[in-house]
Every structure is written in C-alpha cells, then in structure tokens.
C-alpha cells in the first residue's frame, strides 16, 4: 500500500483556536480510512482543508507525493478527489436525472439545461441512479425527494465524478437503517473498484464494519490511529471520545 494523501504539520486556526493543530496523517491508497473524534475535534475542518473549502494556515498537504500549496475546490477533479457535505448540496429545481447529467457533461448547471445530452450520457446517468436506487425518481425534481433520497442522490453525484479519492463527511447522519445499508454497500463497492475513501462518522458499528484504518482526532490533534478494533479499545480514545 502507498500513501495517496498526506498531511504534515497541518494547521488551521479560527480566532486563535487551532481547529487543526500540527496534524500529520497518511491515507493509504485503496483503503477506507475512518475519521472520528468528539464534536469540535477538527474532523470536518480537515475535510474542508483537503478539499479546498478552507485554506490552511501552515503545514503541507500532499496528493500522490505532490504538494498542493494552495488547494482550491475547482482543482479537485485534476487531483482526482471529491467529497460530500454534512448539509446536502443539490440543484433542487432540477430533475434527479439532470443532477447527475450536470456532473458527467457540462459542469455549469445553467448551461447543462440547454446541453443536448447524448444517449451515452443519459444511459450513464441512469445506470448511476440504478446504483443508488433512484431510477424511478429520475424525472422528479430533486427538491421533492425525502432526506434519505437526497443523501443517495448526493452520493450518485459522487459516483458520477469518478475520482480516485472520496471524502465522505457524515453520509449516514439522520438516516433510517434501510438507507444506511444501501450507502454501506455503495462504499464497499467503491473500495472494490480501488477507490480511496475517507469517512467521517460517529457510529462505531459502521466504522468497524467498513474501515480498514482509523484516525482519531481530539482538539485538532492526532490522538490515535491504527486498526479500528485496536484503536477503539485504547484508554485514551475511550476517555476522549466515548467519555469513559
């Protein structure tokens, strides 16, 4: 296994508080790496830094050994990385199908409305919707979907990006068990395809079920890392994360 994503002494501060505090971690290619920690430990801030939605104040980030000195969201496709958000970001007034087509064709939602989509693009989008069990909803506006269906559509948009690295920021939050199982199966399939997954999650059963490696953060620092079963039994983790 080789490191596909690395941080070295990474720093991000808000009002003098280090949300990410000299953090050095390695993400191995082809694995599912869990990212856990108490609320406010810096997990989402780290995801924002890795995807360019926040700029780091110090330290370095490396993708495949190459340093990205300034990370911007519009360059993520070049570096083969995409992400989901805690707050779902869809085009609510566009159809479910068009929400996928805008990813695999024209990357502008307004131009996409006027683009003539080939049979190939439509077939590709429909295949993705079948994977996330939304094919029957393809002509509905995204805003009409239930919360769980919107989560599935957001993941469908991630599938359409077809990147090597995917950052999932709490994709299971607030979902019923049936939808959780569907997303677990999708993430397992992505791993089988050789994708590298970083998963922010609070549910330890999901972490144990999916993750090959676990990183625990606390107050912006690396608290522990290793195989999930081992890390989750460490006293320092139990004290910081589980409150024992």
Automatic annotation (TrEMBL):
SUPFAM superfamilies, alphabetized: P-loop containing nucleoside triphosphate hydrolases
Pfam families: ABC_tran
The ABC transporter domain, residue ranges: 5-244
GO molecular function terms attached to this record: ATP binding; ATP hydrolysis activity
Transmembrane segments: none
InterPro entries: AAA+_ATPase, ABC_AA/LPS_Transport, ABC_transporter-like_ATP-bd, ABC_transporter-like_CS, P-loop_NTPase
Descriptive protein name: ABC transporter domain-containing protein
Gene Ontology CC, one term: plasma membrane
SMART domains: AAA
Keyword match DNA damage: no
Keywords for this protein: ATP-binding, Nucleotide-binding, Transport
């Amino acid at each position: 296994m080789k490191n596909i994503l690395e941080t070295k002494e990474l720093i991000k501060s808000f009002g003098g508080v280090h949300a990410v505090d000299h953090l050095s971690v390695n993400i191995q290619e082809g694995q599912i790496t869990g990212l856990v920690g108490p609320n406010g430990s810096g997990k989402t801030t780290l995801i924002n830094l890795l995807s360019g939605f926040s700029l780091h104040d110090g330290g370095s980030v490396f993708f495949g050994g190459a340093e990205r000195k300034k990370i911007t969201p519009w360059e993520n496709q070049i570096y083969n990385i995409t992400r989901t958000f805690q707050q779902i970001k869809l085009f609510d007034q566009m159809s479910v199908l068009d929400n996928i087509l805008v990813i695999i064709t024209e990357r502008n939602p307004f131009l996409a409305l006027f683009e003539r989509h080939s049979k190939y693009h439509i077939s590709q989008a429909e295949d993705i919707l079948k994977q996330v069990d939304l094919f029957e909803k393809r002509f509905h506006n995204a805003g009409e979907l239930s919360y769980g269906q919107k989560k599935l559509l957001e993941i469908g948009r991630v599938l359409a990006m077809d990147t090597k690295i995917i950052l999932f920021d709490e994709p299971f939050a607030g979902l019923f068990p049936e939808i959780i199982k569907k997303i677990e199966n999708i993430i397992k399939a992505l791993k089988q395809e050789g994708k590298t997954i970083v998963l922010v999650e609070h549910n330890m059963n999901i972490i144990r079920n999916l993750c090959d490696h676990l990183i625990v953060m606390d107050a912006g620092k690396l608290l522990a890392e290793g195989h999930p079963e081992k890390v989750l039994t460490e006293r320092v983790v139990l004290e910081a994360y589980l409150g024992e």
